Every structure is written in structure tokens, then in C-alpha cells.
Amino acid sequence: MSSGTEKKAYEGKSITVTFEARRCLHAAECVHGLPEVFDPGERPWIRPDGAEAERLAEVVRRCPSGALQYELVDGGSEPSDRPTQITHNSAGQLIARGELSMDTAAGPRAETRVVLCGCGQSRLQPYCDHTGPCGQAASG
Ligand code: SF4
After folding, report:
1. Which of 67, 89, 109, 124 lies in disulfide reach of 129, CB 3.0 to 4.6 Å?
2. d(CA 113, CA 100)
3. For position 138, what pLDDT does the model report?
4. What is the pLDDT of residues 60-69, one digit of tens each?
5. d(Cα 34, Cα 13) in Å, to the nearest integer?
6. 44 CA to middle of ligand 1, Å?
7. Where are the alpha helices (DSSP H) in the chain?
8. pTM for this one?
């Protein structure tokens, strides 16, 4: 099983948004939250200068899978939720938010939001990649 996940960066004047397609669960918190920034019909599909940086950061933090992340150009990065929360949804996934250290094949990785594989079929362990029935049933 591969745990590789390619991160693509979209640079704006005040904020850089990154996206890992294999972790995206496709329920469009981003597209619904800020359609002027996130438009899958356009290339690039993320335009960070389409909204004020704080508003964009708030919408990125809604992405439950962590497929979307951000860094502010002035050095600010995403704060972790406190206390860390872990929930188990009916589709079998584990959803965690907080100060997280993920054990990946590439080594430990700091995270603030993840959706973890609950069915064992993901090829992106420990993350859900919506390969199995839990990912297909869930929303992103
Ligand atoms: S998982 Fe994140 S990036 Fe994918 S559609 Fe949902 S909010 Fe957008």
C-alpha cells in the first residue's frame, strides 16, 4: 500500500492554499463555502486572491479531510482545535480534529484535520482515500 500524497500549492498574495487530491472526499464544503475561490470548472480550480485571506482560511478549516490546508504569507499557519476530537461516523471512518501526529510510511506528519480509513481498503493509509465503501458513503 502506498501512503504517498501529492500536495499542490496555489499561491495568493496573502495566503497559499494546498490541496491533496487523494484525500479529498468530494462533498464540496469548499465549493459551497467560497465559490469565488473554489471552482472545479476552472483552471486553476483554486484562486486564493478571490477572497479575503481570513475568510478563505475559515473555509479551508471546514474541509474535514485535510485535503485543503493553508499558510499565511506572513507566517501564520492553521491553529489546532482544542481539545482534540475524534468521532466515528456511520460510514466507518474516523474523523479527527486537533493537534495530530500521523504515522505515515513517509514518517510522522503533523496534521490538524484528518479523515482516517475505517474499512482497511484505502491505498493512502492511514487516510481515507474513498476507495472502500466507507469513503464512498461519506461526505467531504
Ligand atoms: S474534502 Fe475538502 S477539498 Fe474535498 S470537496 Fe470536501 S472540503 Fe473540498
Report:
1. 124
2. 8
3. 52
4. 999 999 999 9
5. 17
6. 16
7. 29-33, 53-60, 133-137
8. 0.89
